[in-house]
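Q: what sequence does this backbone want?
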């Protein structure tokens, strides 16, 4: 049976529901804490070993749970000239969604 490794990098806020949905659908998942991206916020990397014929099912669940959404952040504008105070400035940023990788597995053992 051909196996694949689905690696999904998702926002921390989505990880709990995503793991729950994957387990409900009989997918074993390894959850890793990770950081990165534009906002340098925490995210979660999930590793899912899956038979090749079920890859699209995993990707579908990830897409359902990890929707992109707009979030407002307040960022300071650096002072200019003689001003020495940072002025908070709200910006809207798209967060959520997922980055998904699918890799071939040469060997799989569960002991």
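A:
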């Amino acid at each position: 049976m051909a196996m694949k490794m689905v690696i999904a990098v998702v926002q921390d806020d989505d990880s709990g529901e995503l793991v729950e949905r994957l387990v409900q659908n009989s997918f074993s998942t390894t959850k890793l804490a990770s950081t990165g991206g534009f906002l340098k916020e925490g995210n979660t990397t999930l590793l899912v070993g899956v038979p090749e014929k079920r890859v699209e099912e995993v990707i579908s669940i990830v897409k359902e749970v990890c929707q992109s959404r707009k979030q407002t952040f307040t960022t300071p504008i650096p002072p200019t000239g003689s001003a020495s105070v940072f002025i908070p400035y709200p910006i809207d940023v798209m967060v959520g969604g997922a980055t998904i990788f699918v890799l071939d597995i040469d060997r799989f053992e569960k002991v």
